[in-house]
């Protein structure tokens, strides 16, 4: 008993020398521990929610019109075609009237489900420490991390599907014809070989272009979903008892 009292007195002396009442320090320690525990839990929820969000986003983009009808992810004609005079304005107003645009976006809608296993595999590799770092980072930190980790693999996975869809629906042939038409028009307007080109060259590989735009649009949509998930987590944090809220969240 005497030993216990002595230990308590020694602890009291040490904590008082360090500044602050022992009870206050104990409360502070408990609060910090609870805060860390809670933040780690939120990090796990972010990763789990993003896994569910990836399924939702991919399903939405894979439906007919998933890319074409969504201005955030819609794939426009590549340069030099998209720089043809008046073409951008017309396509932005009525994207559904351009047959090549329809084929390109349909190729993206067909290919995008193949991205899900790649993304989920990368998500499974995120450990607790990495998850906490992503939680404490920017609004789309997890999305940015996934893109960095998977972009090359996604290109490898999606390109064959995009290529097959473009070929099956005459997209490659339409693109070649459109380029030939634009080239002929340029020759008529600018017979002088020294005249500046009216559209960018060299021409873009259509399959590579559509694949990259498919991936870019996918991550744009996942980023929006991540921001929504984080907003939900922030609202959860607001319901915490005052002593357990992170210091930067307290009034």
Automatic annotation (TrEMBL):
Please indicate which superkingdom the organism of origin belongs to: Bacteria
List the Pfam families.
DUF4197
Q: Sorted alphabetically, which InterPro entries does this protein's record hold?
A: DUF4197
- The reply to whether Signal figures as a keyword in the UniProt entry is yes
Which residues, if any, are the signal sequence? 1-18
User: Keywords in UniProt for this one?
Assistant: Signal
UniProt entry tagged with the keyword Signal: yes
Q: What is this protein called?
A: DUF4197 domain-containing protein
> From which lineage does this chain's organism come?
Bacteria, Pseudomonadati, Thermodesulfobacteriota, Desulfuromonadia, Desulfuromonadales
